[in-house]
Design goal:
This protein has 115 residues and is an alpha+beta fold. It has one domain (11-110): Thrombin, subunit H. It contains one helix and seven strands; from the N terminus they run βββββββα. It has a six-stranded antiparallel barrel with strand order 2-3-4-7-6-5. The chain is globular and about 40 Å long. The termini are far apart. The mean pLDDT is 90.
């Protein structure tokens, strides 16, 4: 039986992300697949982190060209052909920016449900 363990709904929202792993000096790029109050799924063709790695993220704000800083840790990762998907638990992020992202994602979800 596949039991759903998530507490919060995840909403699909593709946002550009710049990140590095465990205070490394290599900058990677990726895109969010989904976002929730507690975490996100990140896709990257550059990086292959392992569970437990700490990630410094810069997430593109959905309403303008600014980036929002966040810190998370890798809860799971899966290599799939030429990309890596990773589940990131958000450890620190500006609450207002997180709310903006969630509001945008929710509005997109509502619009998709109505079409």
């Amino acid at each position: 039986m596949n039991e759903e363990r998530r507490i919060y709904n995840r909403f699909e929202i593709p946002l550009d992300v710049k990140f590095n792993i465990s205070k490394g000096d290599t900058d990677y790029r990726g895109i969010t697949k989904n976002f929730s109050r507690s975490g996100l799924c990140l896709e990257s063709r550059d990086a292959t982190p392992v569970s437990g790695d700490v990630i410094d993220l810069n997430i593109k704000h959905p309403n303008d060209d600014t980036y929002v800083s966040a810190v998370g840790d890798v809860v799971w990762q899966r290599k799939d052909d030429d990309r890596c998907l990773m589940g990131i638990r958000i450890l620190a992020m500006d609450k207002g920016a997180k709310t903006d992202i969630l509001n945008c994602a929710y509005d997109n979800w509502i619009a998709a449900m109505q079409s």
